[in-house]
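Structure ticket #2291
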Amino acid sequence: MTSLIDRLPAAAPRYTSYPSSPHFSEEVGGRHVQEWIRALRPGSSLSLYLHIPFCDTLCWFCGCHTKATRRYEPVVHYLKALKAEIAIVAKLVPADVRVTHIHFGGGSPTMLTGPDFLHLVNAVKKHFEVSPDAEIALETDPRDLEEDRLDAMAKAGVTRVSMGIQDFHPEVQKAINRYQSEELTRWAVEECRARGIRSVNLDLVYGLPLQTLDRLMSTVDQSLAMKPDRMALFGYAHVPWMKKHMKMIDETTLADAPTRKIMAERSTAHIITAGYKRIGLDHFARPEDSMAIAAETGKLHRNFQGYTTDEAEALIGLGASAVSNFPQGFAQNDGASNRYAVAIHSGRLATARGLERTQEDVVRGAAIEMLMCTFKLDPLAMRRRFGQRAEGVLREIERVTGEDDGTLIALEGGEYRLSDRGRLHVRQICALLDPYFQTGTARHSAAV
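Resolution: structure written out below.
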C-alpha cells in the first residue's frame, strides 16, 4: 500500500474558516448581516475584530489587507468611518449581549497615536456592553511603540500583544523590506510587561527569502530568550498573484518544499524542547497559558485570527476588509477603504460579500476545525453533535484513512488520529474533506 502523502495537494487553504474565503460571493450583503446580528441570543457572548489597514512601510512578505502611508491624514479619516460603523452595528445588537474578546489587527494598529487608540477603544466601550474581564488583544509593530502608544495600550486595558519578528538576520530583513533589531524587539517586550500587559506573543515566519535553517534557528533562540507566553511559527505564503508587492521578492531565493519542511520540523522540535506546548499547526504556548489549557481541555477554536480560546457565539469584523463569523454564515466588508467609508457615512453596512452556510457546511466545518485544533476526528463526538448528518464526512475520513499506510493517519481507540508527520500535513488532509476545494479554481499557498 502506498502512502496517502503521494496524492496530497501541494497547496491548500489555511482553514481559518470553512468554507474558505475564496468561496464568498456577492449574494450575501448587508441585509443578511443585519438579520444575523439581530438574531444573536440575548445573554450570549460576542467578539469584535477591528481592522486598521495602514502601515508606515510595506513589508514585501505581508499577506494582510493593508497599504503603506507616510501621511497620518488618511488614518484620521478612516477612524471616523470606523467609529461610525461601531455605532451602526451596536444599535443592531440585542440587549444583554456581552463583548468578551476585542482584537485589533492590521496592517499596524500601533500606527495609531496614543490618543487615537484610546478614543477608538472608548468608542467600543461606549456603544457595546464590554465584559470587565474581556480580553483586549493588539497586533503590534515594535518599530511603532513609542512611549505614548505604550501608555495608551496600558490605559485602554490591553491584555495581550502579538509582535511580529519574522527573522532577525539582516539579509533576510533586507529581502523582505522589514528592518527590526533584536534589541528593539526585546525593549518592546520589556516595556509592555512593565505596563502590566500580561501576555506577549512573538510571531516568526519560515520559508522567507535568503532564510536558511541556521538563520531561522538563531531567530528562534533569540525569541525564546525573551520568554514569550506564546509563539507562532507561520510558513511564508508566497502569493504574488494576490499580493502584487510580493513580486519584489526574488523567487530564486525562496526555500524549496523539502527545505521548508525541515525548517518547520526542526524549529517546532526546538520550541517544544524549550518547554512550550504545541498548539494546533503553528502555535506554541507555555503550559500554564490559557491557550495551552484550552487545547488540553478540548476548548481550542480556530477563526480568522488563527487559533483562539474565544468561545463567543459570533465574531463581528469592523473596518475595511474585516470578516464576520455568525452561526448562519460569513460576511466581509469592502476591502477598499474609500468605498468602505462611503457606505458607512451613508448610514449603511459596508458588506461586500459573504457566504450563507448550509447544514452540510456546518458539519464539515466542525470536522475540519476538530482536525486543525486537535489533530484527530472523533466519530462519537460528531455523531453526538450532529446525528445522522455526520455520516457523510465520517465515511470520507474512513476512506482517506484506508488509503494511507499509517504514515499520516490511523484509526486508534475509535478516533482518526494524525501521526506527528501527519500533523504537518493537516491542511492538505482537511482539503480532502472539502468539496469546495475539490471543485474550486482558487489558488492557495504552499501547505507546508
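Closing remark: The CA atoms of residues 30 and 254 lie 41 Å apart.
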